[in-house]
Amino acid sequence: MHRLTVALLVAGAAVTAFRAFAQPPASSTAAARGQVSATSRQSGSLVEYDDDVQRTSVSGVDFTGEWAPRFYEDQPERVPGPELGDYLGIPINDAARMRADTWEASVQTLAEWQCRPHSADYIWRGPSPLRISKEVDPVSRQVIAWHAEWLRSVDRQIYMDGRPHPSGNAPHTWAGFSTGHWDGDVLTIRTTHLKEGYVRRNGLPRSDRATLTEHWMLHGDILTVATIVYDPVYLTEPFIRTTDYELDLHQWVPPYPCEVVEEVDRPKGRVPNIFPGLNTGVKEFGARCGIPEIATRGGAETMYPDFRSSIGNITAKCVAAQR
Amino acid sequence: MIARLLTFSAAAAILASAPVVAQRGQRGAQPPSSPRAMTPFDLTGYWISIVTEDWRWRMITPAKGDYASVPLNAAAQRAADAWDPAKDEAAGEQCRSYGAAAIMRVPGRLHITWDGDAALRIETEAGTQTRLFEFGPPSPSRSGDGTWQGRSVAQWETAGRTGMFGAGPPPKATGLKVITTHLRPGYLRRNGVPYSENAVLTEYYNVMPKEENGDTWLIITTVVQDPQYLTGRFITSTHFKKLPDGATWHPTPCRAS
After folding, report:
1. Among A6, A72, A247, A297, which would you mutate to test the B interface (most chain B Cβ atoms within 10 Å of its Cβ)?
2. Across chain A, how many H-helices and E-strands are there?
3. Which domain holds residue B134?
4. What are the pLDDT digits (tens) for A220-264?
């Protein structure tokens, strides 16, 4: 019996030694991996294993999970909602100002507007939990799409299989049409075919000609997403924001059925609005907080640090939490 | 008995093969590269903050008591309510809102350079501050006292690419992680929202691929933990656009309000 044990151990060691000897030189292993990586990048694969079940240096990380929004930035704007006439730090043009100045909040009570979801660009800043899942090809096991789903939005697909964007005549949607690719561990996404939306929930519009670039980054249990909106109709420069979410293993995005009800008794066909020049409400925010009108009216110059020299060192008169 | 022997033998064979796996991992190992040689993106150059978020807390001085969205405890709220910028100015503490935990949110330009092959230097236009990110242990000669910018230890992020058996290919850097301690007490916002000397700052630096219009963005995710004043992690992310040169570089001194 003792001899049998020794024989098996010797045999095991011999097999191991042979495997080690039979390994190709490091350089050829690396070359083989390089080929796999190149193929994988082309196909958009997330993770690959070689014959020895080891990870390669293929780009990409796994964003799957339940993500809780954190409101450590712009909380007054994002949770209770922005103030009328607060266009601070947004590179809007005069057409956008006109749209926002003539906007009346009760437009949201129209039957056609009540169930309108936040668009792909705005939803990141909205007060909604997020679920990210991946769609995997059952045969190749490659990630062919990511799905991002918020409480107050629609399921959004980000295609990773290299498909082209549709014709410019294709329908526009709230989620738009998104394709992604890896830049190292950063997922870069380009979105087209968006319906008209808004960049702030106080009437500042974003046109249906806008495109969106996103960069998703993972840092442990923190998801950071940069969104850059390009809008030839309402923006004079790209509009960038960065937003953070924390992984929440106990979160569950519930259903969000939306039912249209009669919220306001108004004549049929009336669309709430304010005629140009008549909206005195848009000046109240700046007056109450002691912020000059050249700042509250927004524009690209207001998002650059040097803008402070044109308004001087001022201290706000209002506290956000007192609203 | 035969089954036990086979199990034991199989386990022995696996254990015997373990060093081979390790050797396999070592075989492709290269001589250690300097942090500068490992850089996955170019952080150096001039960058300008684009203030599209928290405008009312960054571009102007917020009102006293305006600490919405910062997870402060009661002691921190009391401290913020007692903020007196004139007192700070008189005490020579006008740089309190320019410390490491806040400086990246202060509007302005950055100038990033390598300091040798193992440290990154960040100069800020706002407050004329200098941060040093050292890869590896901090220089022993540095004082143990807290400073506005503290001590920062940097490492390249590798996203844990070590493989199923810890013998995968050498990890490739994908981002920069920086942990800063030894801070002098300061303000998260100019209006006296405090952080203490016990605060620990964790930052993640990523440079985005160039946009179609030619813009290059630096994204910094900042996590402040402070057992003295915060009830949870204070997380923000800040974006900077790359500038072609330092033609507009104009450092300014700290000010208390």
Report:
1. A72
2. 8, 11
3. 44-243
4. 999 999 999 999 999 999 999 999 999 999 999 988 888 999 889
Token reading at B92: 């020579």
CATH classification (class only), A65-82+112-247: mainly beta
pLDDT digits (tens, 9 = 90+) for B185-241: 999 999 999 999 999 999 999 999 999 999 999 999 999 999 999 999 999 999 999
Residue A237 and residue A305: Cα distance in Å, rounded?
A: 16
Q: List chain A residues with CB under 8 Å of B62.
A: 315-316, 319
For residue B23, the chain A residues in CB contact (below 8 A) are 20
Contacts for A81 with CB less than 8 Å, ≥ 6 apart:
A201, A202
Where exactly are the structural domains of chain A? 65-82+112-247
Would residue B207 count as lying in a domain?
yes
Question: Which DSSP category does A142 fall into?
Answer: -
Give the Cα separation of A90 and B59 in Å (integer).
13
> Does residue B38 fall inside a structural domain?
no
Q: Give the number of A-B residue pairs with CB atoms closer than 8 Å.
A: 229
Record: contact A71-B255, CB cut-off 8 A: no
**pTM (whole model) above 0.80:** yes
Displacement of CA B219 from its chain's centroid (Å): 11
Domain total in chain B: 1
Q: Which residues of B touch A14 (CB under 8 A)?
A: none
Q: Look at residue B1 and tell me if it is in a domain.
A: no
